[in-house]
Amino acid sequence: MRKVISFMHISLDGFVAGPNGEMDWIKVDQEIFDYVGKRISEGDTALYGRVTYQMMENYWPTAGEKLTASKHDIEHSKWYKKVHKVVLSKTMNNLSLPNTTIISDNLSHQIKEIKQQPGKDILLFGSPTATHALIQLNLIDGYWLFVNPIVLGRGIPLFVDIKDKIKLQLLPTTRQFTCGVTELNYAVDR
């Protein structure tokens, strides 16, 4: 069965965005871009909430074609165009978008159905609201966290309204990057 892996940048105190969704505190560099590029090739499906999807869709389809495109822009743009996208949205449900599935209701059933299909990991990028919904339904199989060396003090937390403990197993792929970000990989221990 395919796994849903939540990919998030997170502050040391557990926030995935500032109070107004700010992400200007996230540290990324070429070392992280190269590593993430290799790692996301392990997934053939990208899962987004509506806000994150619209942000991605406004940039990535043409990012690699610009004269000023970086190596990361070119590589990620190619990946983004070919990966199947799943968007959780109650407002986009009537749209027909290429290589994109919109889930507007029956979330648990539809995600379980996608997990049963042949393919690689399903990567949930950012999307705190979508992540919170999937956590509540016990549909996340792992957390791929990039812990940034900052304490925000307030913002949008990764974990909210947790009703039952979520037991995790640290995977041996933990890594520290030269910019101070530490990658932690956890599998949900069911």
From TrEMBL:
Signal peptide positions on this chain: none
Bacterial bifunctional deaminase-reductase C-terminal domain span: 2-172
Pfam families (alphabetical): RibD_C
InterPro entries, alphabetized: DHFR-like_dom_sf, RibDG_C, Riboflavin_Biosynth_HTPR
PANTHER family in UniProt: 2,5-DIAMINO-6-RIBOSYLAMINO-4(3H)-PYRIMIDINONE 5'-PHOSPHATE REDUCTASE, DIHYDROFOLATE REDUCTASE FAMILY PROTEIN (AFU_ORTHOLOGUE AFUA_8G06820)
Name of this chain's protein: Dihydrofolate reductase family protein
Native species: Chryseosolibacter indicus
